[in-house]
Amino acid sequence: VHADSTFVLQAIDRPIQLQGKFFPDDSRKLLFFFGEPTHPAATREEPHDTVQMRLQLLSKVFMSVSDPILIEDLEGNVLEMNDEAVRAYGWQREELVGKSLKTILPPRQHERSDTLLKRCLAGLEINNIEGERLTKDGRIIPVLLTMTLLRDQGGQPTGIVTIAKDISARKQKE
Q1: Is 104 exposed, middle or buried (0-12, 13-18, 19+ CB in 10 A)?
Q2: Phi, psi (5° rounding) for residue 20?
Q3: Which residues are paired to 99 by β-bridges?
Q4: How far apart are CA 22 and CA 44, in angstroms?
Q5: pLDDT (tens digit, 0 to 9) for every residue of the chain, 174 residues total?
Q6: Which of 8, 105, 141, 164 fits a disulfide with 109 by CB distance 3.0 to 4.6 angstroms?
């Protein structure tokens, strides 16, 4: 990831330059990306198979990230979740998609969730805010939340991506 928020991805036939919101791990490896191609060759005129390849690649990255990630609509309903969210929370995708994010929050976190949603919708960055997640079996997991507003090409909000890093081990040491 470069200082100007660009990332160059080596595709099979050529490099693809991307610009957007990156979620690197501590070693600066790309974990997740939301944005669009900026390289002149990576425009709408690309062949359909190149666009499909990029979508498949981003989908694979999303599904394999080691932190739970949820994509929500603007009202806070779950649209999609990665495999780590399924594993960590014990809910199957079908059980959460279309339901309120509050399904996986302890009741004491509901009001705070509304506040964070409003802040994110206002365009404010939500980075490393402590929160909690409720598993299907009733366990509460302390997490660090990062929320990012997703926008369409016209700049209109379309959804929110929430990454919830499990900080149980850190909390036990405290």
Answers
A1: buried
A2: 165, -150
A3: none
A4: 22
A5: 444 445 455 455 555 555 555 444 444 444 445 555 454 444 445 555 665 666 666 666 656 667 899 989 999 999 888 889 999 999 998 999 999 999 999 999 999 999 999 999 998 989 999 999 999 999 999 999 999 998 877 788 888 999 999 999 888 888
A6: 105
Start-end of H helices in the chain: 48-64, 83-89, 93-96, 110-121, 168-173
The SS3 of residue 114 is: helix
- What value does the CA radius of gyration of the chain take, rounded to a whole number of Å? 17
Does the pTM surpass 0.85? The reply is no
Distance CA 109, CA 140 (A): 11
Phi, psi (degrees; rounded to nearest 5) at 157: -60, 135
Output the six-digit token pair for 3. Answer: 């200082």
